[in-house]
Amino acid sequence: MIQYNPKSWFSLIFHAYNRQVIRKLLPAMLGMGVFTAVVCYVELELLEKPMEVSNAVHSMLGFVLSLFLVFRTNTAYDRWWEGRKQWGSLVNVSRTLALRVREFTANESAHGHFNEAIPGFVKSLRNHLRPGQSNESIPPDAVEFAGAVHVPNAWAQSMERRAAELLSEGEFTAQEHWLIAQNLERMIDILGACERILKTPVPYSYSMFLKKFIFIYVVTLPIGFVATFAWWSVPVVMLVFYILVSVELIAEEIEDPFGLDENDLPLDLLCETIETNVTEILKRR
User: Which of 92, 126, 144, 182 to pair with 16, CA 20 to 30 A apart?
Assistant: First the structure.
């Protein structure tokens, strides 16, 4: 995730990220520029006078398009913010679970198990939310978990099993075991919430319609602009195209908050934070 100072206007205006967006859109922008230039040439050089087309239709469609884009970006940001809230909760739950294990029992073997299992769950969840990436999740060492397909579940099950063993051995009271189980249940809830975000993309029909709407709107702009802006229609249309498509690109980038794009959540940093905190709690003398 990009770290920045929101009060530094000039650094935001000329930030390198803007140049990256321009490079990504440059071929399409040049295509729109060439198309607009052709329309300008036909209307200004070949026809006796430019076609007089009212801009009222484009004004009305622009208002409707702006509503669509606002809804699109809000929907994408809601997914991003929901992912951040879930991982923030995971940080808190991991700390609470480590604190309870540390204070409920003096069994160093139990401390060692949870010191491995809590970061193991978190890292495997990160990798689980990034399908197709090179990092592979490593299941617990126990033989029954060796072939686990859903590695975060395997880590959660190993912690649940260890907590049950500590209860049967008298290391935990029933109340203490219940508190540990509450934390484990919350971790599974966070896992399910993140999977819901990952596996429920924006509906295809909505995304497809919006892209078509943007395309039709921009392609028809030169016809209505030539009479007003003449050859200046070329940079004006390219600017409008850049603004509209950039908003759609931003929404596409943040609607999947668990990836490796520049504006995605810093899952690696959050994993390191959890591992450091848990180790500090459970290894404290």
Answer: 126
Q: Binning pLDDT at 50, 70 and 90, where does residue 161 land?
A: very high
178 and 277 fall within a common domain: yes
Write down the residue that tokens 């520029």 correspond to: 33
User: pTM for this structure?
Assistant: 0.83
Give tens-digit pLDDT for 83-103.
999 999 999 999 999 999 999
Which residue type occupies 49? K
Q: Token match 């975000």: residue? A: 197
Q: For the chain, how big is the Rg over CA atoms in Å?
A: 27
Q: How many domains does the chain contain in total?
A: 2
The widest CA-to-CA distance across the chain, in whole angstroms, is 96
In a domain, 225, yes or no: yes
Distance of CA 27 to the CA centre of its chain: 26
Residue 132 parent element (H or E): none
Which of 87-101, 229-243, 246-260 shows the highest mean pLDDT? 87-101
Report the first-to-last Cα separation within the chain, whole angstroms: 36
Residue of 205, 174, 63, 188 lying closest to 124 (CA atoms): 188
> The tokens of 82 are what?
């929901």
